[in-house]
């Protein structure tokens, strides 16, 4: 800025530019400290109508900064005879009267990559929201479905990774006979395949089908036998039990497996396992180590972005039919970044 060509109001420091604001934007409360660098002309505090307020500053306004929340109509443009440039912080120009701008020779542009990080945040947040079903889980809990589902918990979303296996919230999986001397697969199976007994088909089957090709799958859910009878039929070969928190490992299940030596949990905690029966039998109980670390990290980051960018709130906003009459505020930004504003002489902010 050239101080020789800049004449601010006497009460303002020499480097303060005027910013005319028709309506207080949400960014004021988020980045209030940055607006101390400008002289704010608050049209929304003036008793004058909007167009009259524009006419009072018509000879000094050359640059107009706007967003998609308020249309830049021909009447607004005609009220600013010195207007030379319209800068939009929104995507597209549907909210700007382009015909009037062309007639006047007014240039129309945007604010460059000032919102690139926000768009990237939103895109990644929406991706994680869909893949990890965060908004769906939000509706699941808010709708009161949590206590009414019994032992059928809300399923986790899938992952965009070619990992070995991340088993979580599948009902029950038994890993059978790790000793090849005691393993007798059917003739159609290669002799080195390990048996895997599955009581109910978990969603992970379709996600990690390549992983399960390494095992001979014993599908208990296709058997006409009751669950406990099916377990007793394989009681002498089951030594390791892999389970999640979706179905409890009761004393009846453990007693049906006399050769059981190890219970491996894919869930956090052991509340779903009858620890008294395990101690009585000398059965060891452990977990899968860091097999779910990526899932927990995904969930934590997804929930953080969901809160900061208000993704679930926006989901409820749209599904509730509030989109047409209202205007949803965007999420806040957990960074101390500066505000990139294109200023020339005077700026009208339509937010």
TrEMBL record:
SUPFAM superfamilies: Formate/glycerate dehydrogenase catalytic domain-like
GO cellular component: cytosol
Domain D-isomer specific 2-hydroxyacid dehydrogenase catalytic stretches: 50-123, 224-299
UniProt protein name: D-isomer specific 2-hydroxyacid dehydrogenase catalytic domain-containing protein
Database matches in InterPro entries: D-isomer_2-hydroxyacid_DH, D-isomer_2_OHA_DH_cat_dom
Entry's Gene Ontology molecular function annotations: glyoxylate reductase (NADPH) activity; hydroxypyruvate reductase [NAD(P)H] activity; NAD binding
Alphabetical UniProt keywords: Oxidoreductase
